[in-house]
């Protein structure tokens, strides 16, 4: 789980200049941030985030990156992760990974698109590792394979002895190893990885967890996501949509849901989980200066047990606005978004990188 909420007062920490005087290759940069903020899921967060952007080796090749996060929250959650992202063969080969762990107490509201206010509390102590290798087949199309292993220990920590939501749903707090392999395809014509102003991105993935490689259970996760970007003078119009599905025997901790940070911004996404997830987003990004920008957005998301339960009247919504501050010449941004969720509650998220 990659959750990061740094503050906006880090201009003095930035090491990358806005201009690169007559240099054809992009220089290295450090991006150190205090990981401080808030979300409905975590409460107040505190910690540190550091990104190392390595010098560009070949013109047109993405820069290698290494991200590190150490964070705690006032809700008693803790996590530490490392994400390397490396490119080889002039950018045609990408190798990225994840290694880390977390202790994450959280609420289970049931498997539904219409959650109430009552949740069973459980904790998830997890260690996660994954590696993905993507190879470009054409300049715009890449195919990839990945392997992953996660060990989860789930415990019921609800202080209310009458809390039976997990039991009533027939859910068990499964402890053990969940491992498998996956494949993905990426079609990418964006002109920038961090702040695209034109182009398309389509990502399709299938992850297969299997008892044949030691997993506690066998289940399948699929995801299809697409985004389109148009430039309007110095501004950008961006649209995105995604569909997720999980097989019937998927543990509830792996089921599709909005995450509240990049989908259905400002919401506690754990309120809505089920076998299928469907979402769409629209955003207008207005550039104010080489560093500053503001956005207006509309997010929607719904979950369902099967395709027949999906409907236009089932979407949850988040309408809002945000502020961006660029930390590198390519506009790797700090992102602050404030969303009005279901026309009932206001929530916000502070993180790095765009929602899509």
Automatic annotation (TrEMBL):
The keyword Signal applies. Coiled coil: none annotated. Keywords: Membrane, Signal. Its main location: membrane. It is found in: Membrane. GO terms for cellular component: outer membrane. Residues 1-21 form the signal peptide. Residues 84-355 form the Bacterial surface antigen (D15) domain. InterPro entries: Bac_surfAg_D15. Gene3D superfamilies: membrane protein fhac: a member of the omp85/tpsb transporter family. The keyword Amino-acid biosynthesis does not apply. This is Bacterial surface antigen (D15) domain-containing protein. It comes from Reinekea blandensis MED297.
């Amino acid at each position: 789980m990659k959750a990061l909420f740094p503050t906006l007062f880090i201009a003095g920490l930035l090491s990358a200049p806005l201009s690169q005087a007559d240099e054809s290759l992009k220089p290295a940069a450090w991006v150190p941030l205090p990981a401080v903020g808030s979300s409905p899921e975590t409460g107040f967060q505190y910690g540190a985030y550091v990104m190392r952007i390595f010098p560009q080796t070949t013109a047109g090749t993405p820069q290698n990156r290494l991200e590190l996060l150490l964070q705690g929250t006032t809700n008693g959650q803790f996590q530490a992760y490392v994400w390397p992202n490396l490119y080889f063969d002039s950018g045609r080969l990408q190798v990225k990974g994840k290694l880390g762990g977390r202790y994450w107490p959280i609420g289970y509201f049931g498997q539904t698109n219409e959650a109430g206010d009552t949740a069973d509390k459980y904790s998830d102590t997890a260690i996660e590792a994954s590696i993905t290798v993507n190879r470009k087949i054409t300049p715009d199309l890449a195919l990839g394979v990945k392997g992953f292993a996660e060990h989860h220990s789930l415990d019921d920590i609800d202080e209310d002895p009458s809390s039976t939501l997990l039991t009533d749903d027939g859910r068990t707090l499964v402890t053990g190893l969940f491992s498998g392999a996956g494949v993905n395809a990426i079609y990418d014509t964006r002109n920038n990885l961090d702040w695209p102003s034109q182009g398309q991105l389509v990502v399709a993935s299938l992850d297969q967890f299997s008892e044949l490689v030691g997993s506690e259970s066998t289940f399948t996760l699929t995801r299809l996501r697409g985004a389109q970007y148009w430039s309007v003078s110095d501004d950008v119009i961006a649209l995105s949509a995604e569909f997720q599905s999980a097989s019937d025997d998927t543990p509830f901790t792996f089921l599709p849901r909005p995450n509240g940070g990049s989908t259905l911004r400002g919401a506690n996404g754990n309120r809505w989980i089920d076998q299928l997830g469907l979402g769409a987003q629209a955003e207008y990004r207005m550039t104010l200066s080489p560093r500053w920008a503001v956005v207006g957005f509309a997010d929607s998301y719904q979950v369902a047990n099967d395709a027949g339960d999906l409907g236009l009247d089932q979407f949850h919504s988040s309408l809002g606005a945000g502020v961006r501050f660029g930390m590198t010449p390519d506009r790797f941004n700090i992102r602050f978004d404030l969303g009005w969720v279901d026309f009932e509650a206001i929530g916000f998220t502070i993180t790095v990188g765009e929602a899509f």
